[in-house]
Amino acid sequence: MKVFQYKPIVACLLGVFAGLVVLGHWFFSPHMLDRWEWTTYDWRLKLHPATTASENLVMVGRDMESVTRFGVGVWDRTMFAEVFKAFGKAGAAVVAPDFYFVGQSPPGRGGEASDTALREATAANGRIVYPLPTLSREPNDAVTIVQLDQSLRERVLKLSPPGSASISTFRPANIVTGLLPELTTHAAALGHIWAVPDLDGGFRRVPLYVDVQGALFPSFGLAVAATFLDVPPKRITIQPGRNVTLHRARFPNGEIEDVVIPIDLSGNMLINYASDWEHSPFPYFSFVDVWDAVMDGQSDDLKRVVNGNIVVVLPVALEGDKRQTPFELKAPGGFIHTNIINTILMQLWLKETPHVVWALLTFALSALAAWFVLWRPGWKGTVCVKASGITYLGVAHASFVFGGVVLPILPPLYGVIVATGVAMGLNTRFVRGVFGQFLGVGVVDELLDKKHGLDLGGEMGTVTVLMSDLRGFTAMSERLEPKDVVTVLNQYLDVMIETIDRYGGTLNEFMGDGLFVMFGAPQLKEDDAERAVACAMDMQLSMDAVNRQNRQRNLPDLEMGIGLNTGDVVIGNLGSTKRMKWGVIGKHVNLAARIQSYTVGGQVLISESTRDAVGCDLIIESRMEIRAKGIDYPVPIYDVRGITGNYGLMLPEEERGLVRLDQPVSLRFAVVEGSQREDTWANGQCVQLSLKWGQIESDELPPPLTNIKLKLIRATGEAVPGDAYAKVMEIVTTDGKRGSGFVVRFSPLPPDVEVLVRERVSSILF
Q1: pLDDT tens digits for 177-212?
Q2: What is the per-residue DSSP string for 561-581?
Q3: d(CA 278, CA 247)
Q4: 452-650 belongs to which CATH class?
């Protein structure tokens, strides 16, 4: 695959692809993926919570003990008034009740007198920050929108930082109802306690400002912190997507510095929770205990607890006010506000990375993973991918612990998985493609797809073995330039392999200029023998196309012989654990090779077992018997000229065209196989001749189907350059004497020999 020549480019493209898959999945399934990503955030926060809790935060809770004593529902506001006044006298820096004081008190809960007491206590204290009931202003929200009265609107505008009117990226919201009259005026500050949970229901962020009818309204926690640090709205600046800055904030130790709070484009700040509610590091007191201290005049004890501190008064027993946090499913809402205040006071910032950084990290890590897999296929690439993933997790964890930077976990790792999977798929395809060129696609599938495909061993199976060989190619290659030898052979193999693939054969191996092909392994089919014979026919017919290409390049013609045999063989992985080869072995493989050795150019010989296994009619020209090594009896073989049925293939009839020479051609010959040595030469003369056939008279008669080597001799007694090769086809009778001569079929002749043959034949014919 040429694509693997450009691995870096492919890796980058896979990184982009994986990133797009992740972004697409996130777009279409945000709930699932967002929940998983926030889960990774929660684990990081649990492992490393905010280790520093402000010494200036105290919580007073309306818990079950208080409810048991003072009742459920709305309390008499005189109780809050008394406690708030006591906090003021005790030196509380800020009182932050997480309660809505809206509407008039019912007569059974103090009525107008209790409302008056609360207004007076608020005015007397001067450091109380009240929350306003605020909800999202979305088109589908069934919320009753109230028009702010003049005093409340003026107060909201005063709480809006300078220049904030031009900010349009913050969330729109509405104050659904106002406070008890005059509380707005006497309160030190106001704030919203609205936050949008993440898709999994968890509260991890708070909008520091929301857009209320054109004015930016601060969150309750920010308003409390700014009041505590003596930062009025005019000293607060906002840079959307970057920060909210409290300029010249005054801390209890007298230090003055700017507090720069990181926010996103919507104005959200990440809350750095200190712990869960049960293990809260902030001092906690029950409202009933504080009430008793106030009523008993324990001002010194109260002062010791609240002096110079922020007192957050929160409903603890109210189930409807419980919220999910990274630490637990149900935490009091006031506890969340306490953590918001603590995050600001202690400047424990957590900074979300922008979505563009998420995308870039996903693309980069995905591309890196793809590169590792493409660069080092197999287990090494997998180890590199795992190492890069672990390294990134370490970097993400370190950035969270030491820098408060929240790097994404799920998107990059999701992208890495996608890119790795696709790259491994490409590698597998590449491996199958490359090794398929060496072993055949069927063999590669057998090795890779089966559970024990790579184990040593084998099993018995019935196959039809096809063996082919080029006649006289070795001698021909000695006369050609090396590049011409390669060209001739590759052209031939290209046509043959295409034909073999078309008939579903498995090329087991190249044997020089020969081919070893199997039908029935690795997949056994009912028509294996039939397809094998048809393939052999088509291979012979395809030789015309091969030779046309050779003639166009002034290269010699080729001739091929094919032998087939069907039988049981051992199929499997042979060798050792260090080096093995898939293939077949057995006597039927050897017999196929032996049958092929008896063929001449353009001939297809098959065994009796192959003939019997073919399911359609064969056109057989002749039957003969051969002796095969390891077999004690004669083996019948058949010269097939055609196959009928669905194939309808027929080899052209080859005429011998022998002409009797008026002057025989003297020659010497030697058997090149069998028991006789190649250098044992016999004399003879060729009495009949054509371009492919000859009849030789000699006192020495080689057995039929024997291969011989010939040296032709001119009339001058000079040997013609080049050796000719032929196969003895039959013993003939000359002048009434049986066994005085034999007929041979020539392999492609050397150029000088071919010239002599053409001259002698032409002299007779013309």
Answers
A1: 666 777 888 899 999 988 888 888 899 999 999 988
A2: EEEEEEEEEEEEEEE-SSSEE
A3: 35
A4: alpha beta
